[in-house]
Design goal:
Largest interface: B-C, 54 and 45 residues
Oligomer: heterotrimer
CATH superfamily of one domain in chain C: MetI-like
Order of helices and strands of chain C: HHHHHHHHHHH
Strand content of chain C: under 5%
Chains: A alpha/beta, B mainly alpha, C mainly alpha
CATH class of one domain in chain C: Mainly Alpha
Distance between the termini of chain C: 52 Å
Strand content of chain A: 15-25%
Number of helices of chain C: 11
CATH architecture of the largest domain in chain A: 3-Layer(aba) Sandwich
Number of strands of chain C: 0
Structural class of chain A: alpha/beta
Number of helices of chain A: 10
Largest sheet of chain C: none
Radius of gyration of chain A: 20 Å
CATH topology of one domain in chain C: MetI-like fold
């Protein structure tokens, strides 16, 4: 089934998420828009601080309410707008129709509860399963994520598991209710390289087995090619380039995407490669005017520092859109700001 | 779990040795001549010699130390210079009162402090949180005898809800009436400590990744609080309750004086008044054991709460 | 392309001067200011006691015994006809002297033990810290009670007793940052330059732990004053007729049924001092190191 003939499963439209620091609100997401079809995998790529995790947490409704807010935009999921949905309605969605896996397997599991209990918990609250039924279902899930001797390990505590095994437990937890959408926030970053590959393979396998859509967040373009259908590169709270995965690798257009591609780490050195991009992502409270990437950009022109370009389609490929006035001057009217 | 308990018990032995050694230094080495302390400056030489012999302080210090350790462990804490009865017996007579008071104060303190601290953490920086923080700071600023006197003035002397003096009659109602004010006194001070540490540890736990995981699973917030957060937050609370038990032992001395309630505190004060050296020394040994016991209980409680410790 | 920023090792910002740290902490916390002002007023009143006390604290007046608060005696008189207000003012001096001398000694001794132990490290450190842990497990009041009961009640013995209870916490506070600082490059450099260990400890380690030690000092001063009052209340304080707050309450307690003010005024005085010091220290501690809150 193609994305064009059917309403997208998830659609973000001009999402603006703000954080309060030092008494003032600063936008961490500046109008993020994308659509995700059923069964599709979108990779969100960028350095840390670019708004990838904030995007995922905004979709989940898990932003800390004390110092963050969604200031504008819509998040449509399966025909419903999630922005402004009641906390109880969001709770019924979370872990049920939308699930999330986090980066840190060592701290993401509760140390005083058994692994089996924590996996069974989603079933308890979304499926009303109790006792033996929940145990059997949770055990089956642990088997599916290939935890060896799952039955014996069911009542073990998280500290008795290795990092890779814990991440498998997290995956089992996330998939318990067969969600329509899985948000995977750097699920392999904290793991050893060999374990990374195993967990990635497991995720890809389970995704097709379960028929989920997935947003895969990473700062490593290297893993994107194997897992994603489409890529959105984020910088300083906005998408700067988006295209189908083959198109992006064939024709990287935004200078930031190019820089990221140059830094793809080899298998034997994990994340240190990003060091090759000079400068740093600007902090929320000190965003440059104009193009946010301009201060770090080799192609910078005077005009770049004055006006912020729009995300514009390339003449050759309408589905490949880039936010750069040097590489992709907006000839047609841009669809979204 | 059994292995953990045995290990903790074995580890308590060197602690007990160290604590008893401090007591020995305090009781035998620092004062110079205990016999002189007991009999005063005008004592005759013969009386001093007789007293030294009776106390065993005429022996070489190394021998005294060995005797002291052996007798302390075997419960031979000497006879009271005043009543002539064994110190162990004197202690045994009043110990139930002290245990009653200690246990009820801990229960009260936890019952007030844990919910208050949790509530305070959940409403961080709201008016209630501010009041709870200042209130608990005030609570732990009270010397126990000051708060005891205020309670006595208000509820026993002015309002006449409780007896002014003593443990009262023997019926359960009378005993309850007599223990209420002392319990409230110690319980409120303890609640102040527990509130503060519960608040800060709850705040830390609520920021942990696993709480976010539970929310991401769609676990109701009530369940997140009770099952996911509270048990983790209680681990530091146990430490503080353990530390407070020590403070509680000290504060109960003051409380027993004000409410004229029998217990270890009253015993030590009357021994002080009568210069009953052997009872004093025996009481120090009692406190030494109490300190070690409290540490042991704290460690064992960790084992029950935190699976990471149990399995090590 | 310019040189990569991430390739340059991150230089940890040097710790601010401890006075600056304290000033920042004060500015972040209104409670600390209230505590400081109240405490300084009490200190001023104690210092001025000889000038402002309306009567001699020891002057007995048999005619006006156990009088309630009046224009002549604002806080009433005790069973010897002594003026409660004057005794309170003089008692403040004693409480503050015993408290501060014992805490200063504990700071010095404990701080030295902690720095040396952390600096030397190894088995020595292990043994010293084990001993400190045992000392720490004694509650202040019980330790004070034992020491004074054995040595006899006098101002010197009270100071020894209270100082003894506070050595271990200062040793602990001083040790952790010492170990952290010891590993830094510039300490290595100092050693390479041939500076003596003593000089390194005094010049480079002490300023790093000063703010924390002073904050802890204010909290322990509160505990010390409370312990002194408690011991005096038990009858282990400085001998009568000297005015001590705990002793005043002890005497007042005998007349609690008809002359409650005798207990109430010194009780409030103790509470005010301890509370002001706790407000001061607690606010500063939160501001200096939020992570510290869990401990104690």
């Amino acid at each position: 089934m193609s994305a064009a003939t059917e309403a997208p499963l998830l659609e973000l439209d001009g999402l603006v998420t703000e954080f309060r620091t030092g008494g003032a609100w600063h936008a961490a997401l500046r109008g993020v828009s994308f659509a995700l079809a059923r069964n599709e995998t979108l990779a969100l790529v960028g350095e840390s601080g670019c708004g990838k995790s904030v995007t995922a947490l905004s979709i989940m409704g898990l932003l800390p309410p004390a110092n963050s807010r969604i200031a504008a935009g819509r998040i449509r999921f399966a025909g419903r707008d999630l922005v402004g949905l009641s906390e109880e309605a969001m709770r019924k969605l979370r872990g049920n129709e939308i699930s999330m896996i986090f980066q840190e397997p060592m701290t993401s599991l509760n140390p005083v509860l058994t692994v089996g209990f924590q996996v069974a918990e989603s079933l308890r609250y979304h499926r009303g399963m109790e006792g033996q039924a929940a145990r059997r279902a949770a055990l089956e899930l642990l088997d599916q994520v290939k935890i060896p001797a799952a039955a014996q390990r069911f009542d073990d505590y998280p500290h008795q598991f290795s990092g890779g095994m814990r991440q498998r437990v997290m995956i089992a937890m996330a998939l318990a209710c067969r969600p329509k959408l899985l948000l995977a926030d750097e699920p392999t970053t904290a793991l050893d390289v060999t374990i990374q590959a195993q967990v990635l393979a497991l995720l890809a396998e389970l995704k097709s087995a379960y028929g989920m859509a997935m947003i895969f967040i990473t700062h490593n373009l290297g893993v994107v090619a194997s897992i994603a259908d489409r890529v959105a590169v984020m910088y300083a709270g906005a998408i700067v380039e988006t295209a189908a995965v083959d198109e992006l690798f064939a024709r990287p257009t935004h200078p930031y995407t190019e820089a990221l591609l140059r830094t793809i780490p080899r298998v034997d050195e994990d994340s240190a490669g990003l060091a090759a991009i000079p400068g740093q992502v600007p902090p929320l409270s000190a965003m440059p005017p104009g193009c946010r990437f301009a201060p770090r950009c080799a192609l910078r022109e005077a005009e770049c520092e004055a006006t912020d370009p729009a995300l514009a389609p390339l003449p050759a490929a309408a589905d490949h859109r880039v936010r750069c006035r040097v590489r992709a001057p907006a000839t047609a009217a841009p669809r979204h700001a | 779990m059994i292995g953990y308990i045995v290990k903790r018990l074995l580890l308590a032995v060197p602690t007990l040795w160290a604590v008893l050694t401090i007591v020995f230094v305090l009781a035998r080495v620092l004062p110079g001549d205990p016999a002189q302390t007991i009999l005063g400056d005008q004592a005759t030489q013969e009386a001093l010699v007789a007293m030294r012999h009776r106390l065993g302080t005429d022996k070489p210090i190394a021998e005294q130390y060995a005797d002291f350790l052996a007798n302390a462990v075997r419960g031979r804490w000497g006879d009271s210079l005043v009543t002539g009865k064994p110190v162990l017996e004197e202690v045994g007579k009043v110990l139930p009162y002290s245990i009653d008071l200690t246990v009820s104060a801990i229960v009260l303190g936890a019952l007030i402090g844990v919910p208050l601290g949790t509530w305070s953490a959940l409403h961080r920086n709201a008016a209630f949180d501010y009041i709870a923080r200042l209130g608990s700071l005030l609570g732990l600023s009270f010397p126990a005898f000051v708060s005891a006197i205020m309670l006595l003035l208000a509820f026993a002397i002015e309002l006449r809800w409780f007896p002014v003096i003593g443990a009262g009659g023997s019926g359960p109602w009378e005993r309850l009436r007599a223990i209420t004010l002392p319990t409230v006194n110690l319980g409120i001070i303890m609640a102040a400590y527990v509130t503060r540490v519960t608040r800060s540890s709850m705040l830390e736990v609520l920021g942990e990744d696993y709480i976010r995981t539970a929310r991401a699973k769609g676990v109701p917030s009530r369940v997140i609080l009770w099952r996911h957060a509270l048990r983790n937050a209680l681990i530091p609370v146990v430490t503080v309750v353990g530390l407070y038990l020590g403070i509680l032992i000290g504060n109960s001395v003051l409380t027993e004086i004000v409410f004229n309630r029998s217990g270890l505190g009253k015993l030590i004060v009357s021994a002080l008044d009568q210069r009953d050296y052997t009872v004093l020394q025996g009481m120090m040994v009692v406190y030494a054991f109490a300190i070690v016991l409290v540490n042991l209980l704290t460690d064992l409680t960790y084992g029950f709460i935190d699976p990471r410790i149990k399995r090590q | 392309m310019t040189e990569s920023i991430a390739a340059v090792p991150v230089e940890r910002p040097a710790a601010a001067h401890w006075l600056l740290q304290l000033r920042r902490a004060f500015n972040a916390n209104a409670t600390s200011w209230v505590g400081l002002v109240v405490f300084l007023v009490i200190v001023a009143l104690a210092l001025l006691a000889p000038l402002i006390a309306p009567y001699d604290p020891l002057d007995q007046d048999i005619i006006s015994r156990l009088e309630g608060p009046s224009a002549a005696h604002w806080f009433g008189t005790d069973s010897y006809g002594r003026d409660t207000l004057s005794r309170l003012l003089w008692g403040a001096r004693l409480s503050l002297v015993i408290g501060s001398v014992s805490i200063l000694s504990a700071m010095l001794i404990g701080g030295t033990i902690g720095i040396v132990s952390g600096y030397v490290g190894g088995k020595f450190d292990l043994v010293v810290m084990q001993a400190m842990d045992v000392l720490l497990s004694f509650p202040s009041l019980i330790m004070g009670l034992m020491v004074v009961a054995m040595l006899g009640p006098s101002m010197g013995n009270l100071i020894i007793a209270i100082a003894l209870t506070a050595i271990a916490p200062f040793a602990r506070i001083a040790r952790a940052p010492t170990i952290a600082v010891k590993e830094r490059d510039y300490i290595e450099a100092c050693r390479a330059l041939g500076y003596s260990d003593l000089r390194i400890m005094a010049v480079h380690i002490l300023p790093n732990i000063m703010a924390e030690i002073l904050v802890m000092g204010s909290l322990w001063l509160a505990t010390a004053i409370r312990t002194e009052a408690s011991l005096s209340f038990i009858g282990l304080g400085v001998r009568p007729p000297v005015a001590t707050w705990g002793g005043m309450i002890r005497e007042g307690f005998e007349n609690i049924l008809d002359s409650a003010w005798l207990s109430i005024f010194p009780s409030l005085a103790i509470l005010l001092v301890v509370f002001s010091l706790n407000m001061l220290g607690d606010g500063l501690r939160d501001a200096i190191d939020p992570k510290l809150r869990g401990g104690e």
